[in-house]
Design goal:
- This protein has a three-stranded antiparallel β-sheet with strand order 1-3-2, with no helix packed on it.
- It folds into three domains: 38 residues, no CATH class; 52 residues, no CATH class; 199 residues, MetI-like fold (Orthogonal Bundle), CATH 1.10.3720.10.
- It is mainly α and 338 residues long.
- Helix 8 packs antiparallel against helix 9.
- The chain has eleven helices and three strands; from the N terminus they run αααβββαααααααα.
Length: 338
């Protein structure tokens, strides 16, 4: 005698779940209205119109556009790049014609000067020759030296950030903070440092320390200390508790547990974070130099304000090559560490 399994009950009517419920549709409608309002406030509509006009002008469908004119003027002013540097020898301190810088030579330059004729009391233009020092790659070398200073600012900012972040991370790790109040205070300090942008803090530090790299080092170090402090604290909290419990069972104190059970686990992650922060600080150091915090950004701002766009293009080229080389080197280093 065979036993038949009961067949599943068939519903009288299949009820399909709608792909877009009414609540979801209303939410999408409200979000679309808010985005439309925000797009008008941020001039997204004007951006699209002007970009379309530029594309049409480039394709030959209309005569010209404001955007295309601006881009063409920028491209014309940026090239050719300025590699050489010419300076009057009369303006150089302690100039020795027998001890010229490498790859440089002396030359003559005609300059038109306006002078007052004492007899006629009229301004007269005369042409005079001036001795100048010509350095074929003088400005390029100057930009490279400033870029090296920018890298130094980023390096010392990263070192300062690590020095501040490690104690903040230990006190901000829930399993190693001596008291909940200390834990919350450390986390709040990290949040405060992260919330202050480097550019804003650099403005105040320039007022305190004056123009130069000190403000840049402090601005980068304080901000990234908050970033590293949070990352380090999270890594310490999430480390494997097994080795820590084993050491505690032998009577080891917190310092020994951190040194022998926690830091060996989190060290690869710490190095990866530090490497990322260093690479980021090099880019940011270029920006904060614009407010007077040293490095190549300060030179970039000065040349831009004087409309020396050929010098600006040389600076941008040096920054681009530096970033590409650093990305290659950090990629190789990351592969070896991990």
């Amino acid at each position: 005698m065979s036993v038949q399994s009961p067949s599943p009950s068939q519903p009288d009517q299949w009820r399909l779940k709608p792909a877009f419920p009414v609540g979801t549709l209303l939410l999408l409608l409200v979000a679309s209205m808010l985005l439309t309002w925000s797009a008008h406030r941020t001039e997204i509509d004007r951006m699209l119109v002007q970009s379309g006009e530029a594309v049409a002008a480039a394709a030959g469908f209309q005569e010209t556009s404001q955007v295309l004119k601006g881009l063409g003027r920028i491209a014309t002013d940026l090239f050719p790049l300025q590699f050489s540097e010419t300076r009057e020898t009369a303006r150089l301190e302690n100039f020795d014609p027998n001890n010229l810088p490498p790859l440089s030579h002396l030359g003559k330059k005609e300059v038109r000067e306006s002078r007052l004729n004492s007899s006629t009391m009229a301004m007269e233009e005369t042409t005079v020759e001036q001795e100048v020092l010509i350095q074929p790659v003088g400005y390029l070398w100057h930009a490279i030296v400033l870029m090296l200073q920018t890298i130094e600012i980023a390096l010392w900012g990263t070192i300062l950030a690590v020095i501040i972040a490690v104690p903040l991370a230990i006190l901000g790790a829930r399993n190693y903070a001596p008291h909940p109040a200390v834990y919350h205070a450390s986390r709040a300090q990290c949040s405060f440092l992260r919330a202050m942008p480097e550019l804003i803090s650099a403005l105040f530090l320039v007022l305190a320390f004056g123009f130069g790299p000190i403000a840049g080092v402090l601005a980068l170090g304080l901000h990234t200390a908050g970033v590293l402090g949070k990352f380090f604290a999270d890594e310490i909290e999430n480390s494997d508790p097994g080795p820590q419990d084993a050491l505690r069972s032998t009577g080891a104190n917190r310092v020994k547990v951190l040194g022998y059970a926690v830091f060996p686990q989190v060290l690869p992650s710490f190095l990866a974070y530090i490497q990322y922060i260093l690479e980021r600080n090099i880019r940011t150091a270029t920006v904060i130099g614009i407010v007077g915090a040293g490095g190549i950004g300060q030179e970039l701002k000065g040349r831009f304000e004087m409309f020396n766009f050929s010098h600006v293009s040389t600076i941008l080229l040096v920054i681009l090559i530096t970033v590409m080389v650093l990305e290659y080197l950090t990629g190789r280093l990351r592969g070896k560490l991990l």
